[in-house]
């Protein structure tokens, strides 16, 4: 018997499509209903066998589903939950893949009718591509997925969401929403703020009478790849995870100011210690990443 | 007739070895003498056919050379030029591959005896590997090489160094040392300062009772790859290019503070503009990089 009888996926792109693919491949879902606005993408999803059928109207699409997965931009999730709430079948579980959890979980929990359950989630996976064409069954294999239960979370619903992500191949970790938002602010949102600032600073530097970005080599391009990320998506993240992002931005600014002071006074020994400490941290995560993923499972 | 009769390479690693390989491959060098301290590396260089013979003593090794290429750490270059100066043959050209030019060129020009010539250079190429084993003939293919002549530079010596790098496949650009140091501070040194600071900040964050680096995914790892760079090498660069690095660090800090203010006041439209501007700059360099390299040649 499959884990899920009818799965409704709102937003059939890389994230939603990849979840559907792996659950179908494993025989853990009876039927998949895709919900979205773009007809061409949804028809392609049917052709590819990612979904069985689709609906444009979320309220219609979630009818009869025992699991709803929201894979839409973070700022749309609460509104969609509000829209679908009256149409949810008893016992239905709603979960999401949003990269910010505090605002979403606080907004969604009270919107879900009695007998239905909201469980916040965040699979830490992705590629630079989007749309259902880009989805693939192994996207979540060995990647972390953070689930953020609260004191209101139904235990059975939580277990089922955890199980769903484990079946997708993820290493599931549970933490509270505040910790989640700090962790992603540090490892994802802060690097984006830094990269966007760096590229603007260098790109607008006017001390050389020409755009010096043209001298950039592979290192600069690799380092700044994330500055090519979607401005609208990142605007929404910056607004939704503001407090944690500001905390991490200030933390970075402290370290950066410390390094600036060391460079300004030419303290070679302290500069070397600063760099060596960073290299040690960085090499540590790479070595950890090289461990078999099963060891990371908690 | 080859461009160079006897090439002495001080520091037979990735940079020096790759230059020797391509010049030999093109028949543009008569003999290559490797100079260094590590016997095993130099013997391996002979076995690989990168050099013909080697010497441990720089003064002995440069004897009879018409071109000397210094591919050693930036802080060692002036001392080595001082050491070899009395042993240089008349007409010998000394050039280097150091990633900082102001301090090096100012120190080396007066050290070179009359009739010999110093020309500062900086091939913008590299990989994460080091040692002669890592060298390969196409390292410089299509990459930029910045040559930094001064008012004292001999025209014939300059032409020969430019020709050497063009033969190696580089797109050679000439600029004054101050501009060079600003450009590399912006596109290379600043990103390193930022990456080292970021990894230290996140790695030492103590608000979650555990090391949150363990949650980092591929994006963080890619972004911080340069924080695994050699601390000693980067200490020397920070000391040697201090003024330009401080200028660029302050420029970055201005943009970063501006973004922080936008996030703090939740100005979504301005945040989006900031990100979109950055994306435009970043996409611009990637598109430029995709042009055939011959178009970039100046």
Automatic annotation (TrEMBL), chains A, B:
Name by which UniProt lists this protein: prephenate dehydrogenase
Uppermost EC category: oxidoreductase
Pfam families: PDH_C, PDH_N
Residues in Prephenate/arogenate dehydrogenase domain copies: 5-293
InterPro entries: 6-PGluconate_DH-like_C_sf (IPR008927), NAD(P)-bd_dom_sf (IPR036291), PDH_C (IPR046825), PDH_N (IPR046826), Preph/Arog_dehydrog (IPR050812), Prephen_DH (IPR003099)
Pathway(s) where this gene product acts: Amino-acid biosynthesis; L-tyrosine biosynthesis; (4-hydroxyphenyl)pyruvate from prephenate (NAD(+) route): step 1/1
Record family assignment: Belongs to the prephenate/arogenate dehydrogenase family.
Reactions accelerated catalytically: prephenate + NAD(+) = 3-(4-hydroxyphenyl)pyruvate + CO2 + NADH
Gene Ontology biological process terms in this record: tyrosine biosynthetic process
UniProt entry keywords in alphabetical sequence: Amino-acid biosynthesis, Aromatic amino acid biosynthesis, NAD, Oxidoreductase, Tyrosine biosynthesis
Gene3D superfamilies for the chain: 6-phosphogluconate dehydrogenase C-terminal like domain, NAD(P)-binding Rossmann-like Domain
Domain of life: Bacteria
Known EC number: 1.3.1.12
Any GO MF annotation of the entry: prephenate dehydrogenase (NADP+) activity
């Amino acid at each position: 018997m499959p884990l899920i009888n009818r799965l409704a996926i709102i937003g059939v792109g890389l994230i939603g499509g990849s979840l559907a693919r792996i659950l179908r491949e494993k025989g853990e879902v009876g039927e998949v209903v895709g919900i979205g606005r773009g007809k061409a993408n949804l028809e392609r999803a049917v052709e590819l066998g990612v979904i069985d059928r689709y609906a444009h109207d979320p309220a219609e699409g979630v009818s009869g589903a025992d699991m709803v997965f929201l894979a839409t931009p973070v700022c749309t999730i609460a509104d969609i939950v509000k829209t679908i709430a009256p149409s949810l079948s008893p016992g239905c579980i709603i979960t999401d893949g949003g990269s910010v959890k505090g605002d979403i979980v606080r907004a969604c929990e009270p919107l879900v009718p009695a007998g239905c359950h909201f469980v916040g989630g965040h699979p830490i996976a992705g590629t630079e591509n989007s749309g259902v064409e880009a989805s693939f069954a192994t996207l979540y294999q060995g990647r972390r997925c953070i689930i953020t239960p609260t004191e209101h979370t139904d235990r059975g619903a939580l277990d089922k969401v955890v199980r769903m992500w484990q079946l997708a191949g993820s290493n599931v970790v549970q933490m509270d929403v505040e910790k989640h938002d700090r962790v992603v602010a540090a490892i994802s949102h802060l690097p984006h703020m830094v990269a966007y600032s760096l590229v603007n600073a260098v790109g607008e530097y006017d001390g050389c009478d020409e755009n010096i970005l043209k001298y950039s080599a592979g290192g600069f391009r690799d380092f700044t790849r994330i500055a090519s990320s979607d401005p609208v998506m990142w605007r929404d993240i910056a607004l939704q995870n503001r407090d944690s992002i500001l905390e991490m931005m200030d933390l970075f600014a402290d370290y950066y100011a410390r390094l600036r002071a060391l460079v300004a006074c030419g303290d070679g020994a302290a500069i070397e210690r600063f760099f060596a400490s960073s290299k040690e941290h960085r090499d540590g995560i790479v070595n950890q990443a090289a461990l078999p993923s099963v060891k990371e499972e908690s």
